[in-house]
Specification:
115 residues, mainly alpha, two-stranded parallel ribbon, 5 helices, 37% helix, globular
Length: 115
């Protein structure tokens, strides 16, 4: 918020910005907005940015929810991927969170294809 105010962005206040408070899940924040406004679409770089359906799920569960909600992508859900980090890494690492940097590098090289 301080940077937005520094550069004179409009609406840089607590009424218009909902920052992380407690849980990393965005569901409560989405519900708070939905109680006052009609949400037309959601932009995000991670599936969990769109719904709690994708919060802390396995790759298989996430894929199932993507399939079931496919019609929302491109209309209600707009994905802006972040290529530097994100939940997509879990799929590469087999949902293992204690890998060394060398093991992560190996998994990336094994599981990603360049075009």
């Amino acid at each position: 918020m301080a940077n937005l105010k520094k550069y004179n962005y409009p609406f840089a206040d607590n009424e218009h910005l909902i920052l992380l408070q407690g849980s990393s899940s965005k569901e409560q924040r989405r519900q708070s907005v939905a109680a006052r406004y009609s949400i037309l679409l959601l932009l995000g770089d991670n599936l969990a940015d769109f719904s709690a359906l994708w919060d802390k799920k396995t790759t298989k569960e996430r894929l199932q929810q993507v399939t079931e909600n496919a019609a929302a992508f491109g209309t209600r859900f707009i994905m802006l991927p972040n290529s530097t980090y994100g939940g997509w890494e879990d799929a590469l690492y087999g949902n293992q969170h204690n890998l060394t940097p060398a093991q992560k590098d190996s998994a990336i090289r094994t599981n990603l294809s360049g075009y």
